[in-house]
Specification:
129 residues; 19% strand
Amino acid sequence: MSDAEIRVRIDKWLWAARFFKTRSLAAQAIEAGKVTLNDERVKPAKALAIGDRLVIRIELYEWSITVRTLAQRRGPPTGARELYTEDDASRERRMAAMAKRREGVDPVPEHGGRPDKKQRRILQRLRGH
């Protein structure tokens, strides 16, 4: 079968292209609207075609890619990078976001763990205890 005859679900392709660790995580991201196909929200079972444009948002990063080839199996990372081409503008935005995060200019908010004594008392007052 040639690439034109193969039908690949978008969640399966995202997993094969190594954007997500599992197909279920890819499906959840698609359902949550973090992945768009040709500027439209889709369902995880939507079939991909060569030349489709995807926008993928994972945490603070965003990829704008074009599908080059279709794959149903997950291969090595070097092979996964050959499945798509990323726009130069997308790559620059992502690298800038990585650099900003490394510098600590725009850190990811931390939860801070357990509340201390003062925070516990504030929480108790809010709950009415």
